[in-house]
Here is the input.
Amino acid sequence: MARLVPETDPREPVLTGTTGLTRAAYGVSVTETTHPQHGDGTRSPEYRLFRNALRGLRQDLFHDPFAYRPLPPRRTDGPFVRRLPGRLRQSAQHLPHAVVGAIALLALAVGSVSGGLPGGDAPALLSGLLCALPVLATLVRPIGAFWLSLAATPLVALINGDGLDWPWMPGAFVSHLAVLIVVALRTRPRTGVWMWALTCVYGLLSDVAFGGSYYYTNSGPMMVTSAFALLVVCLWHVRHAAQEEVTAQQTVTAHERSRRTLLEERTNIARELHDVVAHHMSVVAIQAEAAPYRVENPPPELERAFTTIRENAVAALTELRRVLGVVRAEDYEAPDAPQPTLADLDALLGNVRDAGLNVEKAVTGAVRELPPGVELSAYRIVQEALSNSLRHAPGATARVEVSYVLGGLGLRIVNGPMPEPSLVKPSPGAGHGITGMRERVSMLNGEMTAGPTDDGGYEVAVFLPVTVPKEGDA
Here is the structure.
């Protein structure tokens, strides 16, 4: 705390616990007195732990305990439920409700027949209803069901006044144990611990205050039985949380793997198209340099224009090589041969036949020269489709159809089913084939379908559009 005091003699001693600061410009002294702070920082860890525990108790069991929280239906996509027939699978979603109802009927029966009053039909029925009500309440108000069970326990004991069990009559014992398990399953482990602790407190107080006239108390069996039951429930919660975490991580991993695969395929496509683009840019640069020599006495403006074209082509080629260096992997080696085209398709089919795949080719339409990017993409699509046939259907037959149509190029690669029996087992592969084909088709604004056929084979159909140049276009 800071306060202003009149300036004193500098030779005067400063009081203990204060710091004197002289401000000559104002002619006053500012003294700052420090006081110990009594906040959370000075509390012991035990106190903070105890306070957090009480806060958790209030939040779990005392904050809106009778809130309406209906038990949701069971999921039907589990490993066992999804194998059931349709009608049984739909009924299985209400299995938890049926189990709770059966336990409530059991508590009703035990509570009704365990009374000590002979001929007391009405008290016996009332005792059974008091035992069944908390169990049924767990379906809609789980926390409130626990308090109802604690409240019903002494009432059941009073109705069965000459019973031999204390403080839990047989029906109340079944009811309270069932409530503890169901509520712990529906909430979380911390809530189960608090319910068990309050159950222990109730049993201790009942034994100390009212257990003198009973020669037998079942507080111990209740504590031990409920402790083991809640321990199993807590372990189930931990396992369920671990499974959800693993599932979430697997989903993220699969998404990242798919994204990485997509980026790798796009990088491979960029590397392959580099040679095609670089060839065209080199041709532009060479023709721009040689064009002025083909014209007799070319005007200076024409020479400057061709010089500008050549300089821009060379600059673009340099930048293209720089970009390729960025996307090139460390182990990437530039191919010595030019990129393949559809003219090399026969050699590819020969290699595939040597690998054991019986494949035939059919070409329809007027064969013509297509843009290099389309030729390269078509060749890679056929190559990848045949590789998939070798991996997934060894020993099968395949057919490659190339259709030169107006406005584009059509491809169809289909293989039959794998013969049975087969000595060669299919291999799973890396899972990049379909992704790479789709990326190449998407790059050219084409269309692609891939899927199994009716006879058990697999078919890949692709259409790559090609713009037909009009007469008179430069």
